[in-house]
């Protein structure tokens, strides 16, 4: 059995491509149903930084299956997908997921949010019954390693998030945020983190906009902000200084016409918009409007690069923990793959020995108990001697080469119960 990964992330693809590949939370279950028609077991991880498909299959077709699924499901042209995706198998795929959960593959190194996103991803795949035993163990081990890295290193000390970096970018642009008015569009995790970071910087007024007013009210109450209904958004734009857009919407929530109308009321007053949603919430052409300063998630790179440099020493320590945990994972998997083959090989040898011994005993004149015992011991010793080296080799090599057990199974025509 092989683990495969096909995906694209913030390093391999710009936001313009990532937003085409983003699978929104509400669509995750539907996407897994579609993946099922390509492969029995798979997990789809889609965050603002990446869209990745992990699969397990008996053959080595996992990456082909993954890319075919993405192409069809996302309706992205073949050549575009090939240009921006990576395909990893076996150890490389496993290591990659560990790096993801440990926050080393994130735009904001050491961020915490990815751990929750991976956990949620696994839950949805479990509900869809798409998780094989190796996939489950892989994801659980990676989540555990993610926690361990954060406990044993300082990779997440004073951790930033995409949302808090957005506020940092705004502060760099606007200056003191204390006298500013801000609108957060989206009241999920990203919105909560943005509003909290803005509050910590003393933002004087935080308006929270969500599709449902109750949700906006929930977050606003939590952070001392004001809930605002979507229908009042245009009016709010005439007075605010900063918009952080982070709703999980499939379409643009702010377009050129809305912004042009708002800016007519404040032609000389700049408006900074930071759109960290993937897919983006704001029509890119809005950037052409006078005094509108639009940024997207990829514009956070310079701050995220500084953050990465500050954590370089910790990245190395995290890498050592990952190397150890990956080794543990493969030791577990080797056992899982090899143990049934070892048992089947010993069972087959024992069945042959016993049936031949019984046949021989029937042909011989009656033997004493001692003679029978000696024959029994001799045949057992022959089997043990013959199998000693193959079994040793199977146990030793299966650890490094998961195809080895399969080869032994075929060679000896063993009836091994297939695992999910
Ligand atoms: N989570 C993070 O740490 C993080 C970091 C960076 C970027 N982002 C990006 O930020 C966005 C939100 O992420 P999240 O984790 O906060 O997700 P989330 O919790 O699912 O976001 C929920 C928010 O999106 C709104 N929403 C959902 N569907 C909508 C639609 N069709 N039209 C308008 N609003 C809609 C919801 O409105 P109601 O519930 O009121 O209907 C709610 O305000 C995503 O694009 C994500 O990629 C997230």
What's the structural blueprint in terms of helices and strands?
Layout: E1 2-9, H1 15-21, H2 28-36, E2 41-47, E3 50-57, H3 62-74, H4 78-84, E4 86-89, H5 90-101, H6 113-127, H7 133-152, H8 162-174, E5 181-185, H9 189-200, E6 205-210, H10 213-223, E7 226-229, H11 233-236, E8 242-245, H12 256-264, E9 271-275, E10 292-296, H13 301-310, H14 312-363, H15 369-398, H16 403-411
Parallel strand pairs: 5-6, 5-8, 6-7, 8-9, 9-10
Antiparallel strand pairs: 1-3, 1-4, 2-3
Helix pairs in contact: 5-7, 5-14, 6-7, 7-14, 8-9, 14-15, 14-16
The protein binds NADP nicotinamide-adenine-dinucleotide phosphate.
NADP nicotinamide-adenine-dinucleotide phosphate binds next to helix 8 and helix 9.
Mean pLDDT: 94
Please provide the count of β strands: 10
Gross morphology is: elongated
Strand residues, percent: 5-15%
CATH architecture of the largest domain: 2-Layer Sandwich
CATH class (first level) name of the largest domain: Alpha Beta
Main β-sheet: number of strands, strand sense, barrel status? Answer: 6 strands, parallel
Return the domain count. Answer: 3
**pLDDT < 50 runs, ≥5 residues:** none
- Going across the biggest sheet, name each strand in turn: 7-6-5-8-9-10
Termini distance? 10 Å
**Which H/E pattern describes the elements?**
EHHEEHHEHHHHEHEHEHEHEEHHHH
What structural class do you assign from the helix and strand content? alpha/beta
User: How large, in whole angstroms, is the Cα Rg?
Assistant: 29 Å
Helical stretch count? Answer: 16
């Amino acid at each position: 059995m092989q683990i495969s990964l096909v995906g694209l992330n913030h390093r391999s693809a710009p936001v313009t491509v990532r937003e085409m590949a983003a699978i929104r939370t509400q669509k995750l279950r539907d996407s897994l149903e579609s993946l099922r028609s390509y492969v029995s077991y798979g997990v789809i991880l889609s965050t603002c930084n990446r869209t990745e498909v992990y699969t397990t299959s008996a053959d080595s077709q996992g990456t082909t299956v993954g890319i075919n699924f993405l192409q069809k499901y996302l309706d992205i042209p073949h050549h575009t997908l090939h240009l921006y995706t990576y395909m990893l198998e076996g150890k490389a795929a496993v290591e990659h997921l560990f790096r993801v959960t440990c926050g080393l593959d994130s735009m904001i190194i050491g961020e915490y949010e990815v751990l929750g996103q991976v956990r949620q991803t696994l839950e949805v795949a479990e509900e869809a019954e798409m998780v094989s035993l190796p996939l489950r163990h892989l994801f659980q081990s990676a989540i555990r390693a993610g926690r361990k890295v954060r406990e044993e290193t300082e990779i997440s000390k004073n951790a930033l998030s995409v949302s808090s970096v957005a506020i940092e970018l705004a502060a760099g642009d606007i200056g003191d945020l204390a006298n500013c008015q801000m609108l957060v569009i989206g009241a999920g995790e990203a919105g909560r983190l943005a509003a909290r970071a803005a509050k910590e910087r003393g933002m004087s007024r935080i308006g929270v906009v969500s599709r449902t007013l109750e949700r906006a009210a929930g977050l606003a109450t939590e952070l001392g902000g004001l809930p605002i209904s979507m229908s009042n958004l245009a009016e709010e734009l005439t007075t605010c200084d900063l918009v952080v857009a982070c709703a999980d919407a499939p379409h643009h929530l702010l377009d050129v016409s809305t912004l042009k109308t708002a800016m007519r009321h404040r032609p000389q007053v700049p408006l900074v918009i930071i759109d960290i949603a993937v897919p983006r919430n704001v029509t890119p052409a809005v950037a052409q409007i006078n005094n509108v300063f639009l940024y997207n998630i990829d514009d956070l790179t310079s701050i995220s690069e500084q953050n990465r440099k500050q954590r370089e020493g910790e990245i190395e320590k995290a890498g050592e923990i990952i190397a150890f945990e990956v080794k543990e994972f493969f030791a577990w998997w080797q056992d899982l793959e090899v143990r049934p083959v070892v048992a089947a090989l010993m069972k087959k040898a024992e069945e042959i020995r016993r049936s031949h011994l019984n046949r021989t005993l029937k042909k011989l004149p009656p033997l004493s108990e001692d003679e029978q015992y000696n024959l029994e011991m001799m045949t057992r010793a022959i089997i043990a001697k013959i199998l000693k080296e193959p079994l040793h080799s199977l146990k030793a090599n299966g650890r490094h080469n998961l195809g080895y057990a399969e080869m032994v199974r075929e060679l000896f025509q063993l009836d091994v119960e297939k695992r999910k």
